[in-house]
Design brief:
One of its GO terms (molecular function) is ATP binding. This is UvrABC system protein A. It comes from Candidatus Nealsonbacteria bacterium CG23_combo_of_CG06-09_8_20_14_all_38_19. By secondary structure, this protein is α+β, with helices and mostly antiparallel strands. It has four helices and three strands; from the N terminus they run E-E-H-H-E-H-H. It has a three-stranded antiparallel β-sheet, covered by helices on one side. The chain starts with a strand and ends in a 13-residue tail after the last helix.
């Protein structure tokens, strides 16, 4: 049985100095620390970058030609990582109606996906609408 953990060993991205960390999968994980402690380096420049790089490597050569070469983060080993998406680390307009889906712009793709493969059901009785 596969472990439900992401193991990062020897991370040296930016100001990280041989950091070893185990991150549980399928859990809400919060990375905290003082300014300059390497939170963004660990989350975005190590974990996300490697997840995205491995995902891009799984694509066909034709698809990869449009994405360019992605550099491997300076790390000894990362195990148990899945393909990753990331919310940009930026200040966004404080719209109270914004969601993770609209901020990351993935909502448009999900809407298209569900419009193509989704099957409408009655909200009251749950039966398929034909």
């Amino acid at each position: 049985m596969a472990e439900n953990i992401i193991k990062i060993r020897g991370a040296r991205v930016h100001n990280l100095k041989n950091v070893d960390v185990d991150i549980p999968k399928n859990k809400l994980v919060v990375i905290t620390g003082i300014s300059g402690s390497g939170k963004s380096s660990l989350a975005f420049d190590t974990l996300y970058a490697e997840g995205q790089r491995r995902y891009v490597e799984s694509l066909s050569a034709y698809a990869r030609q449009f994405l360019g070469v992605m550099q491997k983060p300076d790390v000894d080993k990362i195990e148990g990582i899945s393909p990753a998406i990331s919310i940009d680390q930026r200040k966004s307009a404080h719209n109270p109606r914004s969601t993770v889906g609209t901020i990351t712009e993935i909502y448009d793709y999900l809407r298209l996906l569900f419009a193509r493969i989704g099957k409408p059901h009655c909200p009251k009785c749950g039966k398929l609408i034909s």
